[in-house]
Amino acid sequence: MPKAKGKNRRQKYSYNLNRKRLYRSARRRAAPRIACSHIRHAWDPTKSVAQNLADMGLAGDPNKAVPIPKKKLLGMEVESDGQEQGKKIVRKPYVVNEMEYEASLPEKKSNTLSRDLIDYVKYMIQNHGENYKEMARDEKNYYQDTPKQIKRKINVYKNFYPEEYKDFIASLKQEKMDMQ
């Protein structure tokens, strides 16, 4: 198949184009993408990244923020004088405070088990009790789980829903007593 015309021609260099100005204006316009809303609201576009982070009390480079003393590197641990070298003024401390508060909130447990797995576990327990070998031979064992895999699934269900599991076992015991 023939090549497209003009594809292998050399590109002409444009001498009239000021590339420095183009690069600077593109760089100035492109603001950093900030994920944290607290930092985004406190960001000053007229300042550099390092100046903005210093105003908020954050560090851009952790190695410069907390340097390792040379004496510790050599294996000699000498007590420090207690004087901090070049303390920086934090002009926007509320950013760090809000981030610390947000980090201290407990994490919500969002992971749950599928309805199919719950029904499968309940069916197996209801029909076979604690006999995992019999569960493995059951016709509803579509994925051909081994007895250990079934036991693991039941334990996962126990850990995710302990109250529901206790109620389910209690109802099974109640049914057995009613049948006798």
UniProtKB/TrEMBL annotation:
GO biological process: ribosomal large subunit biogenesis
Annotated Gene Ontology cellular component terms: nucleolus
Pfam family, one: Nop16
InterPro entries on file: Ribosome_biogenesis_Nop16
Keywords: Nucleus
Top-level lineage group: Eukaryota
Localization of this protein: Nucleus, Nucleolus
Keyword Nucleus included in the entry's annotation: yes
Coiled-coil intervals: none
Family listed: Belongs to the NOP16 family.
Protein name, entry field: Nucleolar protein 16
Organism: Ceuthmochares aereus
Species lineage: Eukaryota, Metazoa, Chordata, Craniata, Vertebrata
